[in-house]
Design goal:
30% helix; alpha/beta; four-stranded antiparallel beta sheet; three-stranded parallel beta sheet; 6 helices
Length: 179
């Protein structure tokens, strides 16, 4: 298995800028990586150490977008799947390929643009849906295990010069507390 390393883009579009990411969960750290890769100097802040965050404790996630009419969804999905394909041979990323059967009683939901754009998309046949929903489609995606991926995230954040530190979280008082 090969170590997959994210390279900074020389002359990236964010070179000379500074970015701050509040939150060191999976989304915050991937955002920090994307900013740093594109040339920004980045610092992350979090209320608790990474390994204690809800996104890293006993979590796993299926890589797929949510239903939205946002036209950027299709290219984002493609880029995300390209990243997963690139990183899957590095065990530190915690990625596992999965074939998914997406089911619904609404025929339109199994023919969404993001889904049909996938090269692996295939409508489910009647035999595959017996005793289940009325409509379905198969596609290939990935499951990420953040508790494993933290190893690669830490390695890449360090290599790209992303600084991280704890931050105090301001307390929120309810109106009733002031009465």
């Amino acid at each position: 298995m090969a170590t997959r390393t994210i390279a900074r883009i020389d002359g990236g579009p964010l070179e000379g800028t500074t970015g701050v990411v509040y939150g060191q969960g999976p989304l915050g750290l991937m955002t920090a990586l994307a900013l740093a890769r594109n040339g920004a100097e980045v610092e992350t802040f979090a209320a608790s150490p990474i390994e204690e965050g809800v996104g890293f404790v006993h979590a796993a996630g299926l890589f797929e977008p949510v239903a939205t009419s946002d036209k950027r969804q299709k290219p984002w999905l493609q880029k995300g799947l390209e990243f997963c394909e690139w990183a899957k041979d590095d065990p530190d990323w915690g990625l596992e390929p999965r074939r998914v059967l997406f089911m619904s009683d609404d025929s339109e939901l199994v023919r969404q643009e993001w889904m049909t754009a996938l090269p692996s998309y295939r409508p489910a046949n009647e035999d595959e849906l017996v005793g289940r929903r009325r409509h379905g489609a198969w596609f290939d995606t990935f499951v990420i295990e953040p508790g494993i991926a933290i190893t690669a995230l830490r390695r890449e954040l360090k290599a790209l010069g992303v600084r991280g530190r704890p931050a105090s979280v301001p307390s929120v008082k309810r109106a009733a507390d002031h009465a």
